[in-house]
Amino acid sequence: RQHEGPRRVKRAWVIPPISVSENHKRIPHLLVQIKSDKQQPGGVIYSIKGPGVDEEPLGIFSIDKFSGKVFLNAMLDREENDRYRLRAFALDLGGATLEDPTDLEIIVVDQNDNRPLFRQDVFTGHVVEGAEPGTCVMTVDATDADDPDTDNAALRYSILDQGAAGMFSINTTTGEICTARPGLDRETMGVYNLTVQAADMSGDGLTTTAMAVIYLEDINDNPPEFTKEEFSMEVEEQAAGVDVGKVFVHDKDLAGSPGWLAKYTILEGDPEGAFAIRTDPHTNDGVLSVVKPLDHEVRDRFELTVSVQNERPLEPAAPASPRALATVRVHVRDVNEAPVFRENPRRISVLEGTPPGTPITTYTASDPDTHQIQPLTYALLYDPADWLQLDPHAGTVRTKRELLHPSAFLQGGWYIALVLARDDAEPPLSATRTLSIEILEVNDHAPQLQPPAGVLCGRPGRGGTLLLGASDDDRPPHGAPFHFQLSPQHPQLARNWSITRFNVTHAVLAVLAELPEGPYSLPLLLRDSGTPPREQQQLLNVSVCPCGRDGTCQDGVLAAATAGAGITLGALLIILGSTILLLVLVGLGAVRVRGRRRALRKGLLERSRDDMRDNILNYDEQGGGEEDQDAYDINQLRHPELFSPRAKGPVRRDAPLSSGSPSAPRRMPNSPSDIEDFINEGLEAADSDPSVPPYDTALIYDYEGSGSVASPLSSIVSSLTDEDQDYDYLSEWGPRFRRLADLYG
């Protein structure tokens, strides 16, 4: 075969791109006619395929299969699809391919059928007031759906309306808005509303509009100013920490901004610093207050000079202006004031034992209301011991009774009272002050010998000493140390006795010569250390006893009885032994009293006419009714001696023939309280008796029989004799009869 080179496509089968305008209204519209050079006797069949034919969108294009003419069947929209690429085919009548498929490209030509669209309806921007010209604020932008390569999408921007000022300009190509001239003042106009336009065809085509809102940001370019030059206020005297009034200012800057907040200063008229002024953060007004109490009688009016300025300094571009000043006149209104004491507390000293009616101090309160003469009266508000009396007009405090130590109303030697002063205004006012009275100790008590008696052996150096003590009702320094000595009026005592100091409160009495046993009365002189000192002669009763080997008294009991609470060791041992002996005697007496009570109860039981312990019957047999008397006779309880081992007792029917007698006789109880013990003893004897049934055998005691010598228990509930019987003795029979005692006693 011959080598085949590239096949050359006939010129008539190559189809150039076809252009058609969008929105073409003459439908159907012939676009092109395709033709194959290979004509067959039977003709050629033409067809096309691709988007718009057999692919979505369907039915836009069609072809005449015999002539090859291609038609447009619907309006095109370039914004949806700007071109279509189809494939054209040529076949013979048998379906064989005559030509290779060729491309058919249809280009949609744009028309200006879309308006520009802003990206938002309202654009917002901010710029500070006073900004220089050329300061850019914001950029507005729009879009156009038409072909960007044509004038249909060439946009131009402009400002249609911004008011008469013309403060802003816009870049026609980029849409950037900037300041056009100086003079932006937020206080004059805080917001600018601009109407901006976008037009295609380089400004000559379709148009659209939007709003551009520009807010001016505040700067501190306006100082605060007082609304008036003078303000008048009034405040009560003695008021502190209260608001007097307000001063009002106006600031053109934005309310709440840092350049709007005001700061106030009191420049003149308040040398004592009695006033203060602060800023109300909500209203920016100045609030004047009193920080120190004012006195109408001292000064009744103030004239203050107050200045105001911003907390932040003014901007350099702001016009210079002097500091704003205002005059504030404050009138101090007179009110009733409470009386005033000069000192609090008042401390005074009063001697102990000061007689009633003695003046101790005088209160003189003053009334601050010098323009209103008001008499003052005084009263005791607190006097817990009722020791004082107060002149209501003169204010003199006197003693009502003697002020003595000790007292529960004294605190560390001080007596506290409260004094009240009151004026006669309506309503009256009062003041209270503390009166502290120191009760000075007076040496009005001599020391007392403690104890006033003692015991010692009468041999020198062999326990012949006695420790002496003293006490004093006075407080220091009028008490100890004490001085002990033998009475100077009896110098002969110094031959047999001596006193030496032991400590500040005690001394030692010693025997100098051997003395016979017996009582001695020694006059002693005791003196304290007060100013002046108090002394008193007292008798010391001394019992001299015979000395033992260890220096203690041989007759310890006698010595203890004579000396009372002796100080020596021997006397202490005697007292201890006596105490133990006394406790033993008390215990024996208690036992004896208890025995007597038991005997008394037994006598009461023996005197009872009816022994209610009739018979204890055995009911474990079903006997012959009321005639059955096979029971345990109560006589065994009344006369136990008849049933002792020495006497021959009746044989129990429930015992074996080989049964023996109880091991020991039991005595009869003498009182109702012993019945329980008696029965328990009998139970124990029966349990230990081998001739009786086992101890846990049930014994029944509710059958009495007939014709019993003893009175039956049923008589207790007899309705015939209830009113004549006395059952109080049941409560004495012990806890087992407590129920019967509650029913019949």
TrEMBL record:
Subcellular location: Cell membrane
Cellular component terms per the entry's GO annotation: adherens junction; catenin complex; cell surface
Transmembrane region(s): 569-591
Name this polypeptide is given: Cadherin-15
MF-aspect GO terms: beta-catenin binding; cadherin binding; calcium ion binding
CDD domains: Cadherin_repeat (cd11304)
Gene Ontology biological process terms from the UniProt entry: adherens junction organization; calcium-dependent cell-cell adhesion via plasma membrane cell adhesion molecules; cell migration; cell morphogenesis; cell-cell adhesion mediated by cadherin; cell-cell junction assembly; homophilic cell adhesion via plasma membrane adhesion molecules
Gene symbol of the encoding locus: Cdh15
Gene3D superfamilies: Cadherins (2.60.40.60), TCF3-CBD (Catenin binding domain) (4.10.900.10)
Disordered, as annotated region: 643-676
Pfam families: CADH_Y-type_LIR, Cadherin
Top-rank taxon, per record: Eukaryota
High-level lineage: Eukaryota, Metazoa, Chordata, Craniata, Vertebrata
Known role: Cadherins are calcium-dependent cell adhesion proteins. They preferentially interact with themselves in a homophilic manner in connecting cells; cadherins may thus contribute to the sorting of heterogeneous cell types. M-cadherin is part of the myogenic program and may provide a trigger for terminal muscle differentiation.
